[in-house]
Amino acid sequence: MAALLHSILAFLQASWVELLCGFLIVLVVPLIAGYVVLVERKVMADMQARLGPMRVGPHGLLQPIADALKLLIKEDLIPDGADQLVFWFAPVLSMTAALTSMGAVAFGPWFQVARDINIGLLFVVGISALGPFGIVLGGWASNNHYSIIGAIRSTAQLISYETTAGFALVSGFLLSGTLKVSGIVEQQRADQVWYVFLAPVGFFTYLVASIAETNRAPFDLPEAESELVAGYMTEYSGFRWSLYFLAEYANMIVVGAVGTTLFLGGWLRPFPNVRWMGWLDAMPAILLAGTGVYCIVRAGRQPVKVQSVFMWAVAAACFVIALLSALVEIAHVANAWKPAAFRPPDLFRFLGAMHSGLYGAFWFVLKVSAYIYIFMWLRFTLPRFRFDQLMRLGWHILIPLALVNVLGVGVGLVLKSALGWSGALAIVAMLPTTVATIVVAVFLIRWNDKYAVAASASAAASPSAQEDFDAG
Amino acid sequence: MALRAVNRGNLTDTVHDDAFEKADTLFGADELVINMGPQHPSTHGVLRVKLKLDGERVIGSECVIGYLHRGVEKIAENRTYQQFAPYVDRMDYVAAVSNGLGYCEAVEKLLMVEAPPRARVVRTILAELQRIASHLLWLGTHALDIGALTPLFYCMREREEILKIFEKYCGARLTTHAFRIGGLQYEAYDTLEKDVERFCEDFEARVQEYSDLLTGNSIWIGRTRSIGLLNAADCVALGASGPILRAAGVKWDLRKQAPYAAYDRYQFEIPVGSRGDTYDRYMVRLEEMRQSRLICLQAIANIPPGPIMARVGKVLKPPPGEVYHAIEAPKGILGYYIVSDGGTQPYRVRIRPPSFVNLQALDKMIRGHLVTDVVAIIGTLDIVLGEVDR
Predict the structure, then answer these.
(1) Mutate which of B22, B43, B50, B146 to disrupt the A interface (most A C-beta within 10 Å)?
(2) How many CB atoms lie within 10 A of CB A4?
(3) CATH number for the B72-389 domain, one of 2.40.10.340, 3.40.190.10, 2.60.40.1090, 1.10.645.10?
(4) Counted domains in chain A
(5) HEC readout, B188-235
(6) Residue numbers in B near A47 (CB within 8 A)
(7) What is the pLDDT of residues A311-360, one digit of tens each?
(8) Chain B within 8 Å of A380 (Cβ-Cβ)?
């Protein structure tokens, strides 16, 4: 017994950081996902000429909390014919996969969520690929026709688009030469260029595949509301439903983080090696100060006094953080002028650490947000694919394209090393194969269109369907 | 195989009845029968469609209607002619003005009176606005069914303007009861022309907005082109009318063929399609909205002065006889067959609702397509269950 206790203590002592991180992920990520939902609703409202949630808190800012509360106190329903254990387990599996894969994501050089493992992105991709099992099992366990169709669709879709995403990632890994998250980003700093410019086709295929992987419109067929009611989630309600829902949004964050790390330079600012662009480092401070000024301007116009006090408080917080953040910049500049004469006091060391965390997280979060914004934008603009069209897009266009792209990047790399070019010149070295890949893409799309027209014409005039009708 | 395993559960209870004979499917598994509706987000109310599926392909279907049956035709036999008028608004509740127009004109025909010219022009304006409103609602929900979320809100925005005009005219927005037998109850309000003109001015650009979102979109084309084909012969055989018939290439519109209200005064085109698929029906309806706008503009330019009511008594006693009057409602031909026995109440009213007749084409249109397309095809039929079930 004592030995057991001892080993538990030893385990806790050895890995308390990871445990703490896990705890934080479970606490924080659902909250962030909830607010992504709010942002999505606001963006949707903006695109659709309306206001979106406005009732709970100022501009609906407390809406996610109200929603979570509502879902928590709802009745816990398990349908009669359902497989209870699997029904209970499936959403947990989805959520677990989404949260676990967050562990290897890094927000900044000093801000790894859990641990910088050497197979970093592979771990993220592998674990997040477990999520669809939750969908399939949930659809199966619900014992409902709509659910099972949603689950089957989800399986087929995931198999097809994981392949594309994998090949797209391979083209990135070829460039970075490592799977380690910090290594990939540092390599992009060393190469002086984000990989999206070296492998644009790779980034594009990953973008499309990641939309399909997270079951977002226009690829949201497993939960296609207008066809399958709610797809695999039809029988789910209350907290279980919210687990699925949060898993979807957590997955969005994960694929956004992977895409950002590999193709968009992770936490690097634009032009990380160009010295005169150094003022970009002060961007968080500038933006925070701007937010503070905005709050002060608006504070006087608030209808209720509590709101204006709140605005003043936010403004003050913004200014304090901005000042602390800017102090480090000032110290850097001072150091650059008189390295010997100016020794930063200890306080500055702490600020320096905070600053690099904040600074990294700022650019990373900004890029992930832009990535997720594209998801939302597409969702509100495009109609939904039909399932056969989705499959055709996957197998006829995206997978061949991703394969050709891997080949193209390989050839480009050989060309680059043969010429000895780096930095911006690497883009020039990659250009011929990129253009060739785009030509292949155009060809694939043309071919697919022709095939699609022929296929739909034959389906519509299918003799068996005609016969069936005459007989009935 | 997966499907067979699922059928071990309680799912088998609800499937197989006499309507469906068993058939072998591609993989030898049992066919899957799913109930689409009556509670389903995309059946536009309480339509229930039993679908027999091979995988996701539809191999048979059966429509179950009547969930919204209120016995409107029977009610007519126990109400006076004027009392029944508000009931017809509740059939196609998204095109109440058109319903009222058809009914009032049918009773006028039975009474052998004619509404004065001013009344007829105002009726035409409101009916055309109603056509636009109905098509807008159709476009929004149809696009939503196919997965485009945003057009719905744009369509609702414009529909709101039309409903505001209705509200100003008669106080109601949805079930308007705008017309009376013999003419109009209310004089056209002072700024009617101005309101309609302002709406028409904006509307041209707004239609273009929807068109930009959908017409050239390759996903939209992929989802609607060659889906739900219904050729001219089938349309005629099934009695389908309205945009469905015109999309199949038949230039048949009662506003031209048998002009009523004041349509003979105005110039407008009847858009027709060529293939008779969902995309053509979309294009036809879009163009119809533009043409309705032109009719409105022509009508407000010259609203003749004069009385708004013909001379009809307070108590309507049509001579014994029968009458059939049909108009081109937004969804197709809306006919009223009224039999009078000389009393104050109709002896029998039979209504030919366009949605009900068009819905018959559903089975023919969805066979061989996927479940996904069923939703698109129900959308393109533009049915309103209040009208189907009456």
Answers:
(1) B146
(2) 8
(3) 1.10.645.10
(4) 2
(5) CCCCHHHHHHHHHHHHHHHHHHHHHHHCCCHHHHHHHCCCCCCCHHHH
(6) 150
(7) 888 888 888 888 877 776 666 665 555 555 555 555 555 666 666 666 66
(8) yes
